[in-house]
Fold this protein.
Amino acid sequence: MKSTLAWQSLVALLLLLLALLQLPLVKATADGAAPVLMQTVPFRIYGLILAGIGIDALYQSRFLRAISLFLCAHLATFFLFTQIAGANGTARPAFYLVLAACWLLAWRCVTVLSELKPAGRFGRIALSLIIPAIFGAWILIIWEAVTRGLGIPFILLPPPSAVFAKLISSLSIIVADVNQTILKSVLAGYIMGCAGGFVAAIIADRFPFMRRGLLPIGNLVSALPMIGIAPIMVMWFGFDWQSKAAVVVIMTFFPMLVNTVAGLAVTSTMERDLMRTYAAGYWQTLVKLRLPAAAPFIFNALKINSTLALIGAIVAEFFGTPVVGMGFRISTEVGRMNVDMVWAEIAVAAVIGSLFYGGVALVERAVTFWHPSFRNGKA
Amino acid sequence: MSETRGNRIVPVLVMLIAIVAIWYAGTYFMNAPFQRDLDRRAEVERSSGDLFLATMTQAKPTLPAPHQVAANFFENTFLRKITSNRSLIYHAGVTLSSTLLGFVIGTVLGILIAVGIVHFTSLDRSLMPWIIASQTIPILALAPMIIVVLAAVNLTGLLPKALISTYLSFFPVAVGMVKGLRSPEIINLDLMHTYHASKAQTFWKLRLPASVPFLFASMKVAIAASLVGAIVGELPTGAVAGIGAKLLAGSYYSQTIDMFAALVAGSLVAVLLVTAVDVVGRIVERRMGARPA
Amino acid sequence: MDSHVSHPDQATASAPSVISAAGLGLTFPTNDGPVRALADVDLTINKGEFVSFIGPSGCGKTTFLRVIADLEQPTAGTISINGMSPREARERRAYGYVFQAAALYPWRTIEKNVALPLEIMGIAEAEKRERIARTLALVNLTGFEKKFPWQLSGGMQQRASIARALSFDADLLLMDEPFGALDEIVRDHLNEQLLQLWARTEKTICFVTHSIPEAVYLSTRIVVMSPRPGRVTDVIESTLPRERPLDIRETPEFLAIAARVRDGLRAGHSYDD
């Protein structure tokens, strides 16, 4: 047993006290008092939060404290939400005070979790996922609470639950959009652009004159707003996916070129001299020494390009598409003020973007495990 | 000295000349089919040399020739009043103002986030993954919605565009500054520890000065991203003003020469901005005693 | 914790003790199990002494210095500096620490680097300037105030870092292989200067090194340590006079002490690696 009160707990207690003066949590609805059953909910919420604070203050085990904090904070939040179910815009100040107390409890939970140092590899990985997951969940919770509690107009900012419902109900449209934008434009453009940049880098590397000429130009171009060529590509290649792929090719070509050339230059004179003592030829030196050494740079370009490709394809669709595609959907649904559909498309794009990036990062880990940035289990 | 400078400039010049040559060749091949079509209808017979010249002077070419773009750019930059709707300086100025506003907000935000991340473990572990993840999201897709939604609450003009720039520019600064604020070696941190320096003293006297090179490196990336944000932010405003609006207007009326000139203007703005950050960075680092390169 | 551990050395010492450690131990947890960096170290260092710590890598000599400086916390035994805990001593700025590398801040000039601890300790402007001038003169760096670190040689950089450690006038100087990265000629020169500085300032110096001649040339006492676990295997009192020209290193007396240090190192070193 110990007994210390974290500052988050102190502030949470203060907020609860303040909320007590401001009860009830929600405005009475037009049809009179809330049902008797609902009256007990505030007690449950208070009980849960106090229990979380108490266990955190009294017990030593970090594991126990983290679990109890987690459960208490989120169960209390759940009960809090039952109060505004079906009655948007009825929340009173006490509602937000109690929500803030729940959030502080979750913060305390994250702090306890951050102090946890699991011995096993599995525990470490699990922890590195759980902590940001709690943070992300709270962004959604606060978003939901504020939009519904204040009754913010749907057009301005729909609550996450509505976006999710829209996503499920219009799954077939979204699948068609993903097929058009991701599987056709992005993939084709990404592969061609990265391969082109890589080959150009190898050629530039073979001819130093070309390298010295192309590198400054490539560096310059990667700082330019290349997305501006999108309308021109649409004029040249038509409305279908080919024009978007062309935009992606141009956007991904230069980062790959510049990074690969830089990567091919990292080997030291000593390492290259070693290859010379073996009488290794240009291609042997390239394959056995310089390309592996350049791998971190090449993967860096692949990662940068994964994001650029998605941006390029979606923005290019703003300039004209057949009636399918994520960018097309976003721009037309914005026009019709169907913001929930826009958010659903953006959520899907976000998940695909993260998966794309994560996939490249995983391959990178497997290929360049020897690089210092991956030792010590650091990413 | 002149020897090395020549070594640097000659290859770049040769490559630029090669690019212009390829461009001219491209102009001929891309415009020739349309020109032949035109000539057949007008029943004009041309020699091949004449045809070549004709492809260089179309009013709405598929690919405008470099000199057409240059002439258009020159005309719309230097020969028009700055207040004119056709002046590229006017449009560049509109884009530039939202770029800079967004860049400043984004940089300040990025620095604050980085300071928080470096000082609070719980923030580091919960926020950092999301900052990384936020960049894998094609956030530019949000641009039209931000503009339209903010317009719905009567927020128009500079700020909505600047917010898109802010989003795009805070990330490189936040990541760069986290790296920079963590760049002091353990030996330097130990030194501050032996002086019994406070957290604030360690921050102002060690972490912050050590992060300056990282700050400028990431600001160069941020300002380029900020410009992209501003240009894309101009697309859904119905093509009123700015480089992005000019591009969109050009694409409505197939005015390729105008579009290319707008692209050139945008690129020049990008080069100027990045160079400006670079120069300021060099001056600051020189003042801080950096070894001249 | 009991800080009144009596120690045989303490009774015989004529000068007051600056550092006294009793049963000091430090165990690091690592992935391959705990590592005992220090075990059962009993040592008293008196005012005005120049004590060298010598031993192979992993013998805990640097760790001992870091415990004194409150950069590591011991897991067993007691240690006191001027009768205080290491933490209290650090908070009162009782010592100056010189690291293996000069660790000068590249964005500060030499004088600004020396001013760093004075700024942190809130020394007034006039006194600050006087101290900077005095300590830079002490390490023969007068005239280099406005230079940036990269404009100085490695030896000069290390001298500047010594000036930085001296600037706030702590009586105790902790030096962790300060000349390890320098070439032999520069090192000889700095050793000579360090001895002069020690004679002039009458500071207590703890000096970590892995060079036998350096240890013998500089010290009034040499502490020989050995690894796994890190412990003290021999303490050798120097019989050399306090006035030491560089060529003292060819005298039989010097060579005899060096031989004893070498024997001590060999005895403590297990040749299993």
